[in-house]
Design a protein that fits this description.
globular, 156 residues, single chain
Length: 156
C-alpha cells in the first residue's frame, strides 16, 4: 500500500511538470532571439485604437465588431532553425485540459497552421492562432481574449 501511495504521489507530481501550458508555450517562444511581442490591453482596445487606423501589422485582420479584452502577438522572423521545433512543439501542445477545442490543424509541406478556441460552439472566450511560413522562415502566435462570436468572423 505504501508503494502504491508513493507511486501515485510521484506520478501526480511529475505529470503537471510534463504538460506544457499555453502560457509556458507563449513565454518560450517570446523569449527567442529576434521575437517581437505586442500586448494590446483591454484599455487600449476600448479607447478605439483598433478603429482609428493605427497600423499594427496584421491587426486589420481582426474583426472590428469583436469585443477584445486583450490581444497578444508574438512574431519571429528569419528563424529557419526554429521552424521545425516550433511545429513539433505546437503539434504536441495539448490544450484540452485548459478548455480549448481545435478548429483547424494543417501541415502543408513546411507551413503549419493551428487555430484553437476556448468556449462553446457559438461564442468563444479565447482564440489562439499559431502559424509558420516556410518562405520567410517566420512564426506567428496570436492570442485573443474576449467575446468572440462566430457571427463576428463571418461578418468581417
Amino acid at each position: 500500500m505504501k508503494k502504491l501511495f508513493v507511486t501515485l504521489v510521484v506520478v501526480l507530481t511529475v505529470m503537471p511538470m510534463a504538460a506544457q501550458t499555453l502560457q509556458n508555450f507563449i513565454d518560450k517562444y517570446s523569449a527567442q532571439k529576434g521575437a517581437q511581442v505586442v500586448n494590446l490591453s483591454g484599455e487600449m482596445l476600448k479607447n478605439g485604437y483598433m478603429r482609428d487606423g493605427i497600423d499594427i501589422d496584421d491587426m486589420d485582420l481582426v474583426p472590428k465588431n469583436m469585443k477584445c479584452d486583450s490581444i497578444t502577438v508574438v512574431n519571429i522572423k528569419n528563424v529557419p532553425r526554429l521552424l521545425k521545433k516550433f511545429i513539433k512543439d505546437a503539434q504536441k501542445l495539448d490544450l484540452t485540459a485548459e478548455g480549448y477545442s481545435e478548429m483547424v490543424n494543417v501541415l502543408d509541406d513546411d507551413d503549419y497552421s493551428r487555430i484553437l478556441i476556448k468556449g462553446n460552439g457559438t461564442e468563444a472566450k479565447e482564440m489562439l492562432i499559431m502559424t509558420t511560413d516556410d518562405d520567410d522562415n517566420s512564426i506567428a502566435l496570436v492570442r485573443i481574449i474576449g467575446k468572440i462570436g462566430l457571427e463576428n468572423m463571418i461578418d468581417n
